[in-house]
Amino acid sequence: MGIEKWDPWQEFVTLQQSVNELFNNFLTRFPSTKEIAFVPQINMYETEGEIILDVALPGTLQEDIDISLEKDDALYIRGERINPHETIVGLRHIEELCYGYFERRVQLPAKCFNENIKASYSEGILNIRIVKKV
């Protein structure tokens, strides 16, 4: 068994991630009329000309995902992930995967063009690219 080097900043990063998740879960419940089953995880990057988001949606069909950019530069990612085993009758020992309606609101860090949103979906990751206004 080796000695692990302790990184005090990692505890702050973990705390920040937990607070961000709690805050996002709290905020996304208000605008929706549906019960939100889960809030998808994201990575967001900014380049000189665009905002790039990767959204983790494994097991979700592409046609069940909706993306919209509101006037206040808030991006909404909504949809539904269906449980393929919902009709199975029997004892469920472990059920950790989330199914049902999902919603995520992301405040973009820059003004963006609504008509210049490009999205692709591959291997459970939704990639969104939005051109920034200069």
Write structural notes for this entry.
This protein has 134 residues and is of the alpha+beta class. The protein has a single domain, classed as Immunoglobulin-like, CATH 2.60.40. Helix content is 16%, strand content 39%. It has one helix and seven strands. The chain has one helix at 8-28; strands at residues 42-46, 50-56, 65-69, 74-81, 100-107, 112-122, 125-132. The protein has a four-stranded antiparallel sheet, with no helix packed on it. It has a three-stranded antiparallel sheet with strand order 3-4-5. Strand 6 (112-122) and strand 7 form a beta hairpin. The longest helix is centred in the first third of the chain and has 21 residues, at 8-28. It is globular and about 55 Å long. The model has no long low-confidence stretch (mean pLDDT 86). It comes from marine sediment metagenome. Residues 33-134 form the SHSP domain. This is SHSP domain-containing protein. Pfam families: HSP20. InterPro entries: A-crystallin/Hsp20_dom, HSP20-like_chaperone, Small_HSP.
List the SSEs and their pairings.
Blueprint: H1 8-28, E1 42-46, E2 50-56, E3 65-69, E4 74-81, E5 100-107, E6 112-122, E7 125-132
Antiparallel strand pairs: 1-2, 2-7, 3-4, 4-5, 6-7
